[in-house]
């Protein structure tokens, strides 16, 4: 009895039950029927072309988070969330970092030896299983030791990459790629070499008949724009962001260095203003094309403009960013991230409404 | 099917369905009946006189917001919210600003030409229609270009006021007034002239047989008190607020300048401490009476004393402010704002409880 | 009708209704049955030993809060929350402070005379009644005038302690102890004397045949660690925390001074890092043993590491802290606090999931 009861008593859950009952074989509760009908006839009246934007087909999974509070989901909630993702068109999930400082997503022998904290659940196994179940591709995010200097990330990840490949990569068909999770931002000394080393190791270890060059890798850096301020600061923007030209010069150098080991780049889209999207996106696409890197966008589904850090974004802001990604012929859109900011079962109820608006727009 | 499903899956929604089914013709779900009954007998035991305060009869609609995260409601949710407002006694809704920088609530030809962002829905049309449907008066908030200098607001609003009157004001009976949305605070150079110009334009354009002087206008300034700190700062108060005497002197000058074009003034009640309410409210009422301006209070329903910016206020704090407004013979109470901070379907579940406490108190 | 309706329309409420209907005599809604069943079979797969930690048997009640937004619960919601607490194994509730500056939990004649704000409900009476109903022990938190200097707290509490004993302590069997609510932190001048005076008064007034030494008292100080930063600051940690040795020296002095009047000490566990728990807990336990004070832990159920201040903690973090408390043979665990951060009806839906994870772990 207990599990049903504990399930039912969460509000988003009660909701989810009804929603998913329609996917499965359960009957919808008749008591809500009448109201539902009235509602069915009151679609919002959109005055923009529907679906004229790049749809989101991937999402990060925010484990281990460092700035978004945890939702404390168990396996049942994660399973349900993958169903919601699938229903929205998501085919790719990316664990954002498999460990952060002493916290980890799976019982890593290497990290445990370093004094890491034993997790109560093996989330990587769970994510690989659920990806398998829902026909999605799982990308694995590397460990983050907490240093802003990428060079420090190389050593621990030597062990992590091996462990992860042996435990999950070689075992689950859903394991389909790597995410080099360190954010290339202002601290660049030695970063190119570090990304080469980590990218090469990821690819080498995952070579197979099916993937002779190894599994694909990607990065998701931030643009050093006006809104590039720490989450631990109260402010939401700073006076000066990087110029488009400086951005181009910097990333030309970086791509030149790493393109052999990085297959896609998903710039975060939230650090620049909405009227700067086309200028930066155009440069990103040109650079990606020049170096044979896939050009993805990391469409942030949280709002960087608000004093509450962070809550779901207003739909129209997300739409503006996805429209720009389409205009600039981007290859794929992923989001940070579905479960807090777009999921109907998110603790932030605005997220479920964003899901509705998104589906209303993409039809 | 989709719309009913997407509706039902939100928790506040499931709740709303049940609630509203009692207003409409739907049957209430019997499963919850028993518990509901138990609940009916456990009213809180109030130890203060019930309803001895000025009731809230108006609310802002926070579009375009600049510091409260968006709820991503569609037309169905807005319709339901107007019903909740009505049920609580609200007869006046005020759009807080029809545009903010490049964001807008309706497809403004003027702002689109300036590079503004096309909205996906025409909210002004929606708000006018819903006001009509629920028998409420709609006040229209002017455009805010983002400048703290009111003088900069005059030029764009020349076009906005014309557009809005033509599109909505002349068309909807519910369109009943104007809100000059710029906050008269510390930056006063030229502000009086700016308010005169904008107020006059609003009144002139809306003159009719029924409203020979044009539709009413109002403002909602802040008192420069201890809690007048930026939402983008972590702090919740500063060392020194304005004195009652300085407040009187300053607003005597302002009212002297603008009273011909402003029919009501709703001071925000959240920047001063609870034991300062009577002192400031008394002065406000005296000044309003002197200049023939209606004295409203903008009873903020969010809590300025908390590090989370912003969540619903504790009921007793709201009560203290509304009691003071009654003691000082204020004419009307409006709130900023119902949909986030008092609505049973708010993403902040504390809001629904505030709604219950409010109704329990006012009976 | 109104009360049932207002109850039902809150999401957490709808959920609660179903949950509690199973405790009471109501039938569970059949529409959710099927989904519930599916869920029952998907327990999380724990990879740590279950229940190898000190269970939480007490919680603060956050009235008057100074930094957590109010939930606006009425008597029905409080009653339901006590049932949830009971179900989780809680036998002790502690009102955190019966008044804070001009706000109060009960109509205190003393504070009203000083210009305090009349509350709309007598919460102390409510808490005592509910403790009685659910077989719990109620501890009463003293008044906090807002000064960081404990010496200033003595005078007002002379009157408060008398009032409270007469109104509630002498009347309710559930009234079982006192909580000296002032936080002994960095401001120690005279603090020992102040705690002696207040502790002695609490004990003296509550002497009886059954409690010849008076009712027990406790304190819940913070460790001056890395995360000891103000909630009103954006940052989440500072560069230097107190060393274990300095902590030992300081608290040896304090305990030496106050042990006669303080029966238990529940250090807050959230200001130090997870890998510092054992070092500090060991010292705490040694000092408590030396002075004959019960060693409790105040297991904070909110997350101090996030920019949102404050949301429910990740279960694994709470587990790490409770495991350490067990390893160090602590006597009891209480939490700050159940109703916002662990309750299935909390406005923070993460809290209900934390409740589920907690119960899953403790079995």
C-alpha-based Rg of chain A, rounded? 21 Å
- Count of DSSP strands of chain A: 10
- The shape of chain A is globular
Q: Name the beta content range of chain A.
A: 5-15%
Write the H/E string of chain A, N to C.
Answer: HHHEHEEEHHEHEHEHEHEHEHH
Structural class from helices and strands of chain A?
A: alpha/beta
* Poorly predicted parts of chain A: 1-42
Question: What would the keywords be for this entry?
Answer:
disordered N terminus, 42% helix, alpha/beta, globular, eight-stranded parallel β-barrel, 363 residues, homotrimer, two-stranded antiparallel sheet, 13 helices
How would you describe this protein?
The structure is a homotrimer of 363-residue chains. Chain A is an alpha/beta fold. Helix content of chain A is 42%, strand content 12%. Chain A is built from 13 helices and 10 strands. Chain A has helices spanning 2-8, 11-23, 33-40, 75-88, 109-113, 123-133, 151-169, 191-205, 244-258, 277-291, 315-327, 338-341, 349-362, and strands spanning 56-61, 92-95, 99-100, 103-104, 137-141, 175-179, 217-219, 264-268, 294-300, 332-336. In chain A, strand 1, helix 4 and strand 2 form a beta-alpha-beta unit. In chain A, helix 4 (75-88) crosses helix 6. The longest helix of chain A is centred in the middle third of the chain and has 19 residues, at 151-169. Chain A is globular, with a radius of gyration of 21 Å. The interface between B and C is large, with 61 and 60 residues.
């Amino acid at each position: 009895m207990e599990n049903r009861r504990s399930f039912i008593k969460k509000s988003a859950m009660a909701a989810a039950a009804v929603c998913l009952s329609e996917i499965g074989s359960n009957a919808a509760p008749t008591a809500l029927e009448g109201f539902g009908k009235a509602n069915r006839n009151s679609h919002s009246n959109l005055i923009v072309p529907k679906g004229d934007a790049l749809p989101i087909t991937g999402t990060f999974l925010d484990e281990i988070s460092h700035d978004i509070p945890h939702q404390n989901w168990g396996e049942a909630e994660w399973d349900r969330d993958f169903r919601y993702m699938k229903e929205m068109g998501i085919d790719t999930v990316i664990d954002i970092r498999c460990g952060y400082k002493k916290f980890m997503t799976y019982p890593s022998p290497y990290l445990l030896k370093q004094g890491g904290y034993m997790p109560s659940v093996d989330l990587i196994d769970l994510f690989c299983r659920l990806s398998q179940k829902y026909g999605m591709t799982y990308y694995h995010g590397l460990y983050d030791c907490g240093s802003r200097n990428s060079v420090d990330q190389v050593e621990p990840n030597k062990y992590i990459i091996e462990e992860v490949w042996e435990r999950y990569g070689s075992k689950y068909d859903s394991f389909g790629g790597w995410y080099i999770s360190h954010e290339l931002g202002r601290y660049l000394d030695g970063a190119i070499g570090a990304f080469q080393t980590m990218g090469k190791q990821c690819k080498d270890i995952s070579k197979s008949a099916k993937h002779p060059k190894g599994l694909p890798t990607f990065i998701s850096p931030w643009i050093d724009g006006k809104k590039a301020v720490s989450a631990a600061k109260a402010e939401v923007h700073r006076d000066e962001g990087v110029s488009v030209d400086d951005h181009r010069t910097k990333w030309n150098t970086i791509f030149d260095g790493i393109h052999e080991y990085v297959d896609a780049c998903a710039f975060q889209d939230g650090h620049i203003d909405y009227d700067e999207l086309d200028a930066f996106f155009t440069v990103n696409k040109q650079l990606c094309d020049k170096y044979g890197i896939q050009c993805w966008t990391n469409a942030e589904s949280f709002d960087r403009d608000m004093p509450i850090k962070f809550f779901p974004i207003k739909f129209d802001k997300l739409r503006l960013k996805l429209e720009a990604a389409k205009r600039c012929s981007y290859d794929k859109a992923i989001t940070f991230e579905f479960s807090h900011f777009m999921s109907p079962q998110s603790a932030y109820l605005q997220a479920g409404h964003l899901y509705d608006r998104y589906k209303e727009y993409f039809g």
